[in-house]
Amino acid sequence: MKTFWRIGYHAVSMGDLVRETGVSRGGIYSDFSGKQELFHACLDRYQDSVVTPVFAPVEAEDAGIDAIRAYFDNLLTGFESMDGVGIGCLVGNTLTQIDPTEKATRKKLEAHCMRLVTGFRKALAHENGADGPLSAADLDDLARYTMISAQGLWSYSRLTDDVAILRCYTDTLLASLKARLRGVSR
C-alpha cells in the first residue's frame, strides 16, 4: 500500500513491488492475478487502516461541523509529525492518474469519494437542523464541495512543507461551511 501511495499506481512496476515487499513475483501472483488486483486490495486496506480511523468523527451519529474540523485537524497533525513531508491521499493521488477505461479501479475510487460525501452531508445536515437555511440539494452540493476540497488539500500537501498554508486553507473552508449553514449566500 505504501509503495502505491508514495510512487503511484501506474508508475509502480512488479519489480518495485517485489523489492518493496520482499515477496517474490511468483508469491505475489499466487495471491493476486496481477498488479491491479493487488492495488484493489491495498485500496480496501487503506479504507480500513487509514480512512476509517480519521474519518470516524465525521461518521459518528451526532457529528456536525466540529467533527469535520476534527477530521482535518487530525490529518494536519499527522502531516506535522512527518516534518511537513506530505504523501497526500492514496485515493487522491490515484485520481490524478487514472485512465477512464479502468472501470474497476474507478468504481473503488468513486466509492471512497461517496463515503466522504455521505459523511460530510450527514454532518452538515445535522448542523443545519430540520429548519435550517439549506435545502437537501444545497447540502448535497456543500458535501461534494467539502470532499473535493479535502482531495485538493491532500494533493497540495505533496507540494508544500508549510502546514500553516494547509491550516489556513482548512480554516477558510470551515468558515465557508459555517457561513452557508448560517444562511449566508455564496
Automatic annotation (TrEMBL):
Protein name: TetR/AcrR family transcriptional regulator
Ranges that cross the membrane: none
DNA-binding region of this protein: 13-32
Domain HTH tetR-type: residue ranges: 1-50
PROSITE patterns attached to this UniProt entry: HTH_TETR_2
InterPro entries: Homeodomain-like_sf, HTH_TetR, Tet_transcr_reg_TetR-rel_C_sf, TetR_C
Pfam families xrefs: TetR_C_13, TetR_N
UniProt source species: Ruegeria spongiae
Key words of the record: DNA-binding, Transcription, Transcription regulation
Record-linked Gene3D superfamilies: Homeodomain-like, Tetracycline Repressor, domain 2
